[in-house]
Amino acid sequence: MKPDELIAGMLAGDQHQGGIRCLRLFGVARPFFASLRADVERYRKVNKPSEIGDMNHVTHWTNPHGTAQQFSLLNRTGCSGDFSTDHDLSCRNKWFFDCHKYPILSQLIGDWPHLVNFRINVLHPGASLDAHEEHVPFRTSTGTIGARLRFHLPLLTNDNAELILDGQVYRLPAGEVHLINQGCVHSADNRGESPRVHLVWDALLTKRLFRLISSTCPAPDYLIALGAVAPRAVATRSIGPYRRLAPAVSRAEAATMNLCLPQ
């Protein structure tokens, strides 16, 4: 995969013209994954999440149903309920304050370049997020058009936890890192009897990030390259009404989207 191919695929998906909806990037080696999941479970027990159902939550616009929670790990305060900089499109001056307490979780965060945010998202049984649309292209601080990419790593899931992207239904397996096109109209629901727990993070598409996800440079030894292939959708579903954020750039400007510098 070349940068132009990834960018074109993400832009097509963002504009609902096919393209890239979802790619399987990496499997996580079992010993590392087990320790990662243990770190996250310990973190969840001693830290307080933000509630997406609260009216002032940055993600409340997705119209959550049931109990949907978020822990924001990468910020400027060290408070897991502080989502104030999650979507400011900057990878500067943000830290995982509890890195020494959760070394495996810290290692994953530290190995991923140019993060904008890093979250633990929990959909409890019966919870869901309504269909909504975000955008991949954004205007950088220098005026060029860059891309924000989103990644999911399911830690706990079940056969009734689904992610829908432009009408295609996916069940993401635990232990795999997926690139998700948030420009697709997407929704999530957990109709199972156990929580759905995902690590979710956004990163700027820089040269360094591209080299990692395209396997053109060595990845950390706990990540097993899966070939950046699209998973098979398990079903299709009509989209219906959905909410959308206003695009940050025009369609003509989005056509110039490219690798960007950290900001």
Summarize this structure as a short list of keywords or feature phrases.
263 residues, alpha+beta, Jelly Rolls, nine-stranded antiparallel beta sheet, seven-stranded mixed beta sheet, 5 helices, 19% helix
Strand content: 25-35%
The CATH superfamily title: B-lactam Antibiotic, Isopenicillin N Synthase, Chain
Tell me, what's the shape?
globular
- Residue windows where pLDDT falls under 50 for at least 5 positions: none
According to CATH, the fold-level topology is Jelly Rolls
State the share of residues found in helices, binned by percent: 10-25%
Count of structural domains: 1
Q: N- to C-terminal separation?
A: 25 Å
Topology order in helix (H) and strand (E) letters = HEHEEEHEEEEEEEEEHEEEH
Given the structure, what is the number of helices?
A: 5
Task: Give the beta-strand count.
Answer: 16
Major β-sheet annotation: 9 strands, antiparallel
Give the mean pLDDT.
97
Oligomer designation: single chain
CATH architecture assignment: Sandwich
User: Which class of secondary structure composition applies to the elements?
Assistant: alpha+beta
Q: How large is the radius of gyration? A: 17 Å
In CATH's first tier, which class applies? Answer: Mainly Beta
